[in-house]
Recover the amino acids of this structure.
């Protein structure tokens, strides 16, 4: 029987392990660099983390079901290119933005269809759609970015509301909404159920296929939202944008305690995971190291995070 | 040397269960020795000890007059003991010859490499001995089940086996293939190879066997010459236990028809099954493992595709093509495999209880946590689930308590027709009685209950009627008054 009294270190690590790592990184960087703990620098980190954090929310849903979405980066790029060309040909901004979200959500839904109806594993489906979308993007643009986007768009990337950067606000609001969805709706409950035991869930009379399709729709939708923020920040739509977002969004979720075997994960953890990566990135810049080192560091961090998760799973199994 | 093999005083214990105690098996050279017993009698455990899969806890094995001790399948096959498993374990993408010589390939030259010529010709020789028309260079994937079995036998011959164990070798063969297999078995026994033959089918046991040993509940019951043993006697030996367990059966008032199944079939699995269950009735389903009971329940519940036939709920035809539709039609299904197909082990107890009824605890897809928790609390105490609280992780519960959680799940759903597949398997006696009382309670409320059980005393005691299946067919339905263990066994093995 589970222990109830005393200090439950397992739950603590599950919930706050990532937070402790974040704090540790911040303390070390504060000691090393006098610029780290300044309001301006922290704001920069938050803005830079926003895009990946938004994508990682959707990725968390997907990974909780035991899947993976490798197409988020390509989805974002294709969605950006489509809406940017609409903008440059004079379509009202709000229509363009709604189209961006709708297109990306539909893209995700198609992933879900292939996974549930054709029964192709998520890894393969999203690897395939990643390649397809990236290819289409490059064909349309011939590899060149689309610039001269409407001035109003920059509000999503560089605007502020009472001193808070808009990208940061968007990611906080998205995190709050989807945390609520995960914990207080049937869809959220079924997402955990599907990831923990798909067949038992199906035999309880739940439409597991629909749940999985909706999860990939959410992942696509948030990739589209992140794309809007990115275009706002850069002022252009880049056909090769988001190439590293697949890896980084998975990393954020996994560092934040989402288990690749499914059934476990939460939005709060993922946000911390994304911030850890943002802080690491920033730290390398402050230390004057090439951002290439960051890629090396993230690789190690991800492997360690999954390893620790596996250790925990083994312990659970032994206790059974 | 009278006996090729003697297994004396064999004991084997698994966590929580004494699988074998003081079991004896004596096999003569060149005989076909049948091992007979109900599900869970210990036949498989015994032959797996012989084949080196399990280690015995106590007892001795004497092979060809010499005491032997070994602990791996490799050692066993070196001693000339081969086992042909029910689920034929062949590597599909290797050739027949490669499969026959796996782990003892013929090698030549330097650096050592495979001597294909020799392997293929040796394999051809072994197959020829069996009169089997199979090419050694064919991929195993393309073989039929019967052919795979022949290859397995060829493997045993080429390894110079003195004892070949066959676990239900005819389970998935056609009549013609069975005839062929029997011919090969006779060839083997002419060459003085002893066969240990596990089967449930009494007809074929009489046809192929020389002697028979019966096990029951892990105990040795007796050995007979097959010519002298009659069928009723063997059945009596298999089932003849006394009912010592407590079954609190109450017969409820029988109401109108709740579920009717007509001509249900699934290719190669279920054949033209029709029956009905009434409100307040417990319909037991008996039969041997593999007789298609679970498959039938899954078919009614819409868990698998490719099922033909009709299902009527309350007299109206119900299109049950998915578990979701089954649940909407008021059918509940407690699965046999609690851990993999029932509970979500990582969920707290309360979320498992409410999983199938979330529509009751939500409005516009938003969960009403308070309603969910308070209903769970009620069922938690009603079902007497032994755990610190409804927030306890389901994984940490005992089997009996997990089962109660799942019963609570379907009780919460308030289904009219409740299918229970092996509801008390692997559960402690205390929880068993609680589950029986719960079944009574449900029947008393006018629910229709289908209970699949391999436990004969349980099925006899708890059912109002007992349906018996054999090889995907419904072979009979017995009333409570007329049913006996012997009658059920007859329908299950001969029907």
């Amino acid at each position: 029987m589970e222990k109830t009294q005393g200090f439950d270190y397992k739950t603590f690590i599950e919930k706050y392990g990532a937070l402790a790592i974040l704090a540790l990184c911040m303390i070390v960087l504060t000691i090393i660099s006098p610029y780290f703990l300044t309001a301006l620098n922290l704001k920069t980190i938050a803005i830079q983390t926003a895009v990946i954090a938004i994508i990682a929310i959707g990725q968390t849903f997907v990974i909780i079901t035991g899947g993976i979405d490798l197409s988020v980066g390509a989805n974002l790029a294709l969605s950006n290119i489509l809406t940017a060309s609409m903008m440059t040909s004079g379509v009202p901004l709000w229509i363009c933005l709604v189209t961006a979200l709708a297109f990306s959500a539909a893209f995700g839904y198609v992933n879900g269809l292939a996974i549930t109806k054709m029964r192709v594993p998520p890894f393969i489906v999203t690897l395939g759609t990643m390649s397809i979308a990236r290819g289409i993007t490059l064909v349309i643009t011939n590899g060149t970015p689309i610039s001269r986007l409407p001035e109003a768009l920059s509000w999503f990337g560089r605007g502020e509301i009472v001193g808070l950067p808009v990208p940061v606000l968007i990611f906080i609001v998205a995190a709050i909404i989807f945390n609520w969805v995960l914990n207080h709706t049937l869809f959220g409950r079924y997402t955990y159920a599907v990831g923990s035991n798909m067949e038992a869930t199906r035999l309880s009379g739940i439409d597991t296929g629909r749940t999985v399709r909706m999860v990939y729709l959410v992942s696509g939708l948030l990739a589209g939202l992140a794309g809007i923020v990115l275009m706002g920040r850069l002022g252009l739509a880049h056909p090769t944008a988001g190439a590293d977002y697949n890896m980084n969004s998975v990393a954020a979720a996994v560092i934040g305690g989402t288990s690749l075997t499914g059934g476990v994960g939460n939005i709060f953890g993922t946000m911390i995971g994304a911030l850890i990566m943002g802080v690491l990135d920033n730290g390398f810049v402050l230390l004057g190291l090439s951002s290439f080192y960051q890629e090396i560091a993230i690789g190690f961090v991800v492997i360690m995070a999954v390893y620790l998760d596996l250790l925990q799973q083994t312990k659970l199994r032994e206790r059974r | 040397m009278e006996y090729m093999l003697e297994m004396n005083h064999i004991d084997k214990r698994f966590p929580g269960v004494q699988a074998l105690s003081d079991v004896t098996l004596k096999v003569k050279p060149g005989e076909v020795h049948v091992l007979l017993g109900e599900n869970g009698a210990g036949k498989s455990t015994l032959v797996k000890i012989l084949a080196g899969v399990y280690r015995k806890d106590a007892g001795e094995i004497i092979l060809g007059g010499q005491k032997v001790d070994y602990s791996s399948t490799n050692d066993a096959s070196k001693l000339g003991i081969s086992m042909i498993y029910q689920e034929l374990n062949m590597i599909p993408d290797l050739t027949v010859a490669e499969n026959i010589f796996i782990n003892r390939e013929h090698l030549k030259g330097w650096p050592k490499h495979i001597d294909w010529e020799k392997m293929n010709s040796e394999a051809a020789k072994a197959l020829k001995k069996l009169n089997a028309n199979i090419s050694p260079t064919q991929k195993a994937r393309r073989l039929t089940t019967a052919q795979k079995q022949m290859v397995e036998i060829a493997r045993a011959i080429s390894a110079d086996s003195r004892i070949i164990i066959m676990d239900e070798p005819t389970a998935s063969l056609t009549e013609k293939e069975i005839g062929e297999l029997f011919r090969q078995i006779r060839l083997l026994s002419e060459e003085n190879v002893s066969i240990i033959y596990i089967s449930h089918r009494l007809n074929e046991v009489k046809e192929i066997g020389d002697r028979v040993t019966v096990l029951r509940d892990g105990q040795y019951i007796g050995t007979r010459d097959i010519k002298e043993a009659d069928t009723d006697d063997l059945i009596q030996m298999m089932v003849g236990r006394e009912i010592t367990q407590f079954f609190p059966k109450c017969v409820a008032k029988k109401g109108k028809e709740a579920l009717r199944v007509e001509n249900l079939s699934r290719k190669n699995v279920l054949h033209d099954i029709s029956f009905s269950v009434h409100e307040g009735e417990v319909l037991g389903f008996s039969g041997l493992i593999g007789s298609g009971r679970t498959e039938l329940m899954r078919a009614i519940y819409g868990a698998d595709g490719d099922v033909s036939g009709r299902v009527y709920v309350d007299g109206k035809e119900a299109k049950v093509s998915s578990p979701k539709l089954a649940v909407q039609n008021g059918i509940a299904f407690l699965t046999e495999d609690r851990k993999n197909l029932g509970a979500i082990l990582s969920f707290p107890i309360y979320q498992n209880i409410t999983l199938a009824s979330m529509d009751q605890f939500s409005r516009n897809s938003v969960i009403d946590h308070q309603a969910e928790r308070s209903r769970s609390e009620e069922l938690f105490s009603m079902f007497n689930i032994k755990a610190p609280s409804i927030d306890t992780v389901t994984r940490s519960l005992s089997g009996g308590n997990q089962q109660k959680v799942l019963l609570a799940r379907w009780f919460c759903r308030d289904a009219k027709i409740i299918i229970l597949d092996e509801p008390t398997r692997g559960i402690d006696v205390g929880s068993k009685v609680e589950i029986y009382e719960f079944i009574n309670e449900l029947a008393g409320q006018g629910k229709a209950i289908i209970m699949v059980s391999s436990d004969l005393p349980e099925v006899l005691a708890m059912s109002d009627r007992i349906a018996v299946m054999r090889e995907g067919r419904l072979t009979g339905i017995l009333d409570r008054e007329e049913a006996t263990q012997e009658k059920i066994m007859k329908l299950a093995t001969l029907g």
Q: What stands out?
A: The interface with chain B takes residues 1-2, 4, 184-187, 189, 192-193, 196-197, 199-207, 263-264, 316, 319-320 of chain A (CB under 8 Å). Confidence is low (pLDDT under 50) at residues 1-5 of chain A.
